[in-house]
Every structure is written in structure tokens, then in C-alpha cells.
Amino acid sequence: MKIGLIDSGIGLLAAAAAVRGMRGDADLVLASDPETMPWGPRTPQEVAELALGCARAAAAYRPDALIVACNTASVHALPALRAAFEPGLPVIGTVPAIKPAAALHRSVAIWATPATTGSPYQRALIAEFGNGADVTEVPCPGLADAVQSGDAAAVDAAVAAAAALTPAGVGAVVLGCTHYELVAGRIAAAVPGAALFGSADAVAAQALRRIGAAPGGTPGAAPGSVDVVLGGRPAELPAVALGYPEGAVLAGSPATA
């Protein structure tokens, strides 16, 4: 079994680690294009073209499913990706976890990139899945870039700025960008008492369902392989990825941060 994942950068690590946690024997293909980050400010056509490029690079490894581990790409490129690869290759998008958060909490904050915050897409999700909760949209300028570069001071500054915009006593924080899941601990510390809702586990589970694979796998099976493609070229996991627990898990080494 092989699962491909695409993103602009290392945001795909969260979903990849979730797949590895559910199926340790799954081979993974991680395709990204960090030189073109950030994707948020780009036009929908540009995002679709960049996502298609990453998807073609991943598809060359013949995966059984393809996870679009990027909120921006899921908004702007999912129709093009499905038209290009389905039904032969199931394509699974990423949606902010507004529905489960609003089902359990009456006060919800959605942390997202400035391009996503207030967008028709996010507003439609709130209208459909907000369940009458008091929902606050919180822009997080610079947070994804800080996570991508591994700049701890910049991460802390961006998290603190977003926390200042988050209502006191909020019940839940939805992580509306896959990069944010890599610093969930820092976000939790900045918004004490709030439950965090990411998408990685749900996306990983959906990918397994789409290909009829049950979690768990074969006891004693060898760990799956990890292929990395950066900008369409085979590469190693970027050094910055090893600083996060999710990247370290994939590399089989301890995290450095």
C-alpha cells in the first residue's frame, strides 16, 4: 500500500505521520514545492497548476491514494486534481475541522492564513457546519512561513498575535492550515483551556477508507518507505522537517525541537 501526499511545504507532515500511525507498513510519497510558497496569495489558477505539478510528481510513484494535505490547494485545486487522476487514483482533500469543533463547543475560533480568513469558502463552511456556535475567524499572518522555516521565535510571535485576537475562554480552536498542526503544542499553550481540532487524523482515515485498507496492518510488518519529492525532483526530508515530531517519526529519528 502506498499513499501520496502533496502540499506547498512541510504542512503535509501531519497527515503523513497520521497515516504512519494508522498503518506503519504504508509506503509514503511526500511531494511539495517549497520554492513556490506561500500558495495562499496566489490566484486559484496558479494554485491549481502548482498542485497539479506536485500531484504528477507523486503519481509517478504509483500511489494507491493521493492526499491533498493543504487547505489552500483543497479549496482551489481539488476539482482539477480529481478530473486529472480519478477514478484511477482517489484524491482526498483537507477541510478545516469546523464541524466536529462546533458540534462539541459553543465558542469556536478558526485560525487560518490571511487569504483564507473571511473567504467565501470558509464562510460557507461556517454557515453549513457551524451548528449555531459563536465562530471567530482569526488571521495568522506569517505563521505558516515561520513553521516552514523552523523559526521558533517567529512562530511564537505569530502565535501570540493570533492568540490576542482569539476571544478569551474560547472552547475550541480549529487549525485551518496544515502547517499549524506541527506547532499545536505552542498554540495550545497560548490559548489555555481550548480544545484544538486539526484535520490530519480524519484525512488519513478517509484515505484508508477510500482504498479499503483497515487501520493496524500486519503485526510485525516492516515500516513503510518514505520517498520525498521537492519541486519535482527526488530529495531527502528537509532538515527543518526533522525538528518536528511528525517529521522525526517519518525519518525514524528523535525530533530536535
Automatic annotation (TrEMBL):
Top-rank taxon: Bacteria
Keywords per UniProt: Isomerase
InterPro entries: Asp/Glu/hydantoin_racemase (IPR015942), Asp/Glu_race (IPR001920), Asp/Glu_racemase_AS_1 (IPR018187)
A Pfam short name: Asp_Glu_race
Gene3D superfamilies xref list: 3.40.50.1860
Name this protein carries in UniProt: Aspartate/glutamate racemase family protein
UniProt lineage: Bacteria, Bacillati, Actinomycetota, Actinomycetes, Kitasatosporales
